[in-house]
Structure of Kinase-like domain-containing protein:
Amino acid sequence: MIELKKPSLECIELFKAYWKNAKFYVTLKKIRFHYLENLKSFYKLSYHQNILSIFGFTKEPNSEDYFLVTEYANGGNLRKYLKENYQKLSWHDKMKLAIDLTSGLQCIHSHYIAHLTLNPYNVFVHNNKILIGDSTFSRSVSVISIPENLPILPYIEPNFISNSAYPRDNKSDIYSLGFIMYEISSGKAPFASVRHNFELNKKLLSGVREKAIVGTPIEYIDLYEQCWDDDPMIRPSADDVLARLGRMNLSPVYEDTETDTIKINMKNVEKKKVNVNPKETEVISESSSRNRIDTVLLDFGGGGGGGLESGFSSGTDSGFGSGSRDRQNSRREKKERKCQILPCLPKCRVTFGVFLCWMCVILVIACVFLGFFVAKLGKKQ
């Protein structure tokens, strides 16, 4: 496994430039000389349509700095692109972005390379096509503090944030992919209202995740939730993710089950005037209170950390974001309703059989009477 080493840079300067000989725009990234060695592996992947092309490098006169010359992305990074274009994107557009991203990652992994710095600031969009960039935006492995102007903590495995010796590989990229897929579906950064610090990392370690957005295909949600699972063994490979995206159904979609349940119940009460069973009332209120936990403000403490508002799906029983569990419960309830309906079918068959028997008896009697009547007419003639 080849790891793309990260430069220990405090900041990266980016410039847009026009390449006169080639007659197109490029991006110039200011880097240190020692970082050029780290780009060799990534340079070999520039042929792929979903990986940012690296054209070479040039030295700045009278300094030790070099400029890396890369493909220019007219849509900017993915975070910027979604902020400006999300409202115009259909679900087919979002699926294409997810497929492009996974296709590029699959190419990287097929060369036994782990990117390890996948985040929306390092993924670019050019002519509505995803391009995965190199690891320039990341920091040294020994530095795990995240600058506030680059909030990428959710895209990094929480175990690595807590312990820099934690081993990372391709499955670390899949974890990052899960959060990027969520951002593509929602158009917003995960945990945007919270400081990206160790308090948030504790929540991520405990299994707290963002809640799915209403209208997102169920299969898509199941896939990105599997990608960001705490257990690397549960996370699929890039090959698996790409295959599942390719055959994915865009329906059914995730809905606000709490609101739908209340509307249905109120309609039944008003139209049918049926007395509600106390046990059913208890179950409904229990479900409603569980859903209301989604909107509780989580206090991180530590002075000014802010609150974490709304919707997380958690792998634990802590009660945070019951979105995933609600969907599972909803599916289970539908299955139970089917099971309740099916026992009625044999009764229907029996009833229909009895009806047929009676019809046959009536038909036979009618034939007998008709024959008797015809015989009488014959004798008279």
Observations:
- Residues 1-11, 136-149, 259-325, 334-349 have pLDDT under 50 and may be disordered.
- The first strand starts at residue 2 and ends at 3.
- Residues 2-246 form a domain with the Transferase(Phosphotransferase); domain 1 fold (CATH 1.10.510.10).
- The two ends are 107 Å apart (CA to CA).
